């Protein structure tokens, strides 16, 4: 029988030949899932023999990964802001950049020059709920609305709230085409991670990305049409002194910042992600 170490060593080249990045790490994660243990536990059990009942499901997972199915879908979860969120094909797989956005938002409400804690938060385009639920955990007194056009994405967001023991009357899940179902609700903090990919570019994306819902990728013409539509109706929903925070595509910040300025927003600033790409926009509510 093959040991844990032998299995990792033989499976890794198979994934590498398929062009899978970090092939060994992928192999370790898949084996840990089959063995129902933490990945680091594998290092303590390198000499453990594996039975056929363990190898058979591993072979299936490795084949699916080699064929391009995302690791996060195979594992069924993804870590975000120190929590394990459920992850499947109902919503976009969380990106590291989005975690950076949440960290930057929380930082604005911490420290000596911090903004007052937000009492009402909107997560527009919530998807799996990672932003809204992370902010609900960071601001336990806030009312949080998680809005999305997709009912299947909202079902995953609700599942994540239950999975993380965050279900509460202060959370609302609303199916809405941008602002259509939000009435005259106003918020101290509005966060949006809306689709920002030009539809002409979608066919060239990686096999893994094609497992994400197209609705979560297609930002309309130039990749910014949906965000522009969102911005055009944002001001009435942002309370005086309120903060808007967005994740956008590379090369989009300048045009979107100009649009915010034309709409009367103030204190507009862009920030880059860890890859040094302009990725985030922040703006304060227009002066009354």
Describe this structure as you would to a colleague:
With 288 residues, this protein is an alpha/beta fold. It has two domains: 64 residues; 208 residues, Rossmann fold. It is built from ten helices and nine strands. The protein has a seven-stranded mixed sheet with strand order 5-4-3-6-7-9-8, sandwiched between helices. A hairpin with a 2-residue loop joins strand 1 and strand 2. It is elongated. The model has no long low-confidence stretch (mean pLDDT 96).
* Rg, alpha carbons: 21 Å
SSE order, one letter for each helix or strand: HHHHHEEHEHEHEEHEHEE
Helix content: 25-40%
Mean pLDDT: 96
CATH class of the largest domain: Alpha Beta
Residues in β-strands, percent = 15-25%
Strand order of the largest sheet: 5-4-3-6-7-9-8
CATH topology type of the largest domain:
Rossmann fold
How many strands, what sense, and barrel or not for the largest sheet? 7 strands, mixed
CATH-defined architecture of the largest domain: 3-Layer(aba) Sandwich
Domain count: 2
Compute the separation of the termini in Å: 73 Å
pLDDT < 50 stretches: none
Tally of separate helices: 10
Give me the secondary-structure category: alpha/beta
Name of the CATH superfamily of the largest domain: Vaccinia Virus protein VP39
Strand count: 9
Shape: elongated
């Amino acid at each position: 029988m093959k040991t844990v170490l032998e299995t990792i060593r033989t499976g890794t080249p198979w994934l590498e030949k398929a062009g899978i990045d970090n092939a060994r790490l992928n192999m370790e994660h898949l084996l840990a899932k089959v063995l129902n243990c933490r990945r680091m536990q594998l290092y303590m059990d390198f000499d453990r023999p594996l039975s056929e009942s363990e190898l058979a499901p591993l072979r299936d997972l490795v084949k699916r990964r080699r064929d391009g199915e995302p690791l996060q879908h195979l594992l069924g979860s993804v870590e975000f802001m120190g929590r394990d969120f459920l992850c499947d094909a109902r919503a976009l797989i969380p990106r590291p950049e989005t975690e950076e956005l949440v960290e930057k938002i929380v930082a604005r409400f911490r420290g000596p020059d911090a903004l007052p804690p937000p009492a009402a938060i909107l997560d527009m385009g919530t998807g799996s709920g990672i932003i809204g639920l992370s902010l609900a955990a960071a601001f336990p007194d806030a009312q949080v609305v998680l809005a999305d056009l997709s009912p299947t994405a909202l079902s995953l967001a609700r599942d994540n709230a239950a999975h993380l023991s965050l279900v509460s009357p202060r959370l609302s899940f609303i199916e809405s085409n941008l602002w259509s179902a939000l009435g005259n609700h106003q918020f101290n903090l509005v966060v949006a991670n809306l689709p920002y990919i030009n539809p002409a570019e979608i066919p060239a994306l990686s096999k893994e990305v094609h497992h994400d819902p197209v609705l979560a990728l297609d930002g309309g013409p130039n990749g910014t049409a949906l965000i522009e539509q969102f911005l055009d109706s944002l001001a009435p929903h942002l309370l005086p002194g309120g903060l808007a925070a967005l994740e956008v595509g590379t090369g989009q910040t300048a045009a979107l910042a100009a649009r915010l300025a034309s709409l009367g927003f103030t204190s507009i600033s862009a920030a880059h992600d860890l890859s040094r790409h302009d990725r985030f926009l922040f703006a304060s509510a227009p002066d009354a």
